[in-house]
Inverse folding.
């Protein structure tokens, strides 16, 4: 039992010694991290300022054999085609044990394609209903640096990141739920795959958009801004029932003063009688009614006529009173003269 304890303590002391040696390893890498496109080239230097018995690079691709008479060596690969590569530089100093520093290498690949589609739906969308959009990203690596962004026209709607640590290319599918309204008719939806590989990666980060945006057509019912409108009849009256809707609406008019079936959205005439005119705009999504109330301008003529007559009467009364008082004063003057 005592012997086992001694062995355990010795192993722990060796591990602590090795860890401390690696923390103080007299090597410098330049750069300290590498981001390289799959199939691209890479070159990293490893140098030391201490006397040593040998320095070298260990790697599964293009290792650099240990050398004794150099203080700087370079690990160089002209075409890196290994996804999971972990090179490290090591040194055997004259004083102390061998130590090493690992080089973090990220091998990336932009997506082969990015596409957008609707899930189980091919016809025009209907206002207020929920739909699912799908974005497919093919052949991207490493996926932990991938962000999929959703846009409606130029507005960012949502974005998704991934925590997978897979280093080789993968396919990813992301979905987005939308509930379009009439303002979305004709809108463009697209998804974008962005690889943000940090400061050592390409700047700006590579962005691959969906090959073709998704143009959305939304069906919605007619809806007037107001349900009634009052119009004072003039020489020519225009009743405009035009309203936006998809599909385009059909129009029907009803009134006690109309003898013809009218399918136009506008009635323009000088022969419309005062009264109520009802317009019904209808399409496959629903209908909406607007009522026009036409009033005669005769009410204004009557007002002015009454006002003019009233003013004439007042003027006549003033003239009569003036004449009466003038005559009265003259008689008074004559009487005083005779006296």
């Amino acid at each position: 039992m005592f012997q086992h304890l001694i062995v355990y303590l010795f192993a722990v002391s060796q591990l602590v010694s090795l860890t401390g040696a690696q923390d103080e390893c007299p090597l410098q890498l330049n750069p300290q991290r590498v981001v390289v496109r799959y199939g691209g080239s890479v070159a990293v230097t490893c140098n030391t300022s201490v006397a040593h018995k040998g320095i070298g690079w260990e790697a599964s691709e293009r290792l650099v054999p240990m050398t004794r008479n150099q203080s700087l060596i370079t690990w160089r690969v002209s075409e890196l085609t290994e996804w999971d590569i972990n090179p490290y530089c090591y040194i055997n100093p004259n004083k102390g044990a061998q130590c090493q520093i690992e080089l973090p290498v990220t091998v990336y690949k932009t997506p082969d394609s990015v596409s957008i589609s609707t899930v189980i739906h091919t016809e025009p969308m209907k206002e207020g209903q929920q739909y699912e959009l799908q974005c497919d990203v093919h052949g991207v690596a490493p996926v932990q640096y991938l962000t999929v962004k959703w846009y409606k026209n130029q507005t960012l709607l949502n974005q998704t990141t991934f925590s997978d640590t897979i280093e080789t290319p993968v396919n990813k599918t992301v979905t987005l739920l939308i509930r379009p309204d009439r303002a979305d008719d004709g809108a463009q939806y697209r998804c974008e795959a962005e690889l943000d590989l940090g400061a050592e990666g390409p700047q700006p980060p590579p962005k691959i958009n969906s090959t073709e945006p998704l143009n959305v057509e939304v069906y919605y019912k007619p809806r007037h801004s107001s349900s009634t409108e009052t119009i004072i009849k003039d020489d020519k009256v225009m009743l405009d029932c035009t309203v936006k809707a998809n599909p385009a609406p059909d129009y029907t008019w009803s009134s006690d003063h109309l003898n013809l079936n009218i399918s136009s959205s506008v009635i323009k005439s000088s022969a419309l009688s005062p009264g109520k005119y009802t317009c019904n705009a209808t399409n496959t999504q629903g209908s909406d009614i607007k009522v026009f109330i036409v009033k005669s301008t005769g009410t204004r003529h009557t007002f002015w006529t009454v006002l003019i007559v009233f003013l004439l009467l007042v003027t006549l009364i003033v003239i009569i009173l003036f004449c009466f008082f003038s005559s009265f004063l003259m008689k008074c003057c004559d009487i005083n003269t005779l006296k």
User: Anything to note?
Assistant: The radius of gyration is 46 Å. The chain has three domains: 2-107, 113-219, 228-298.
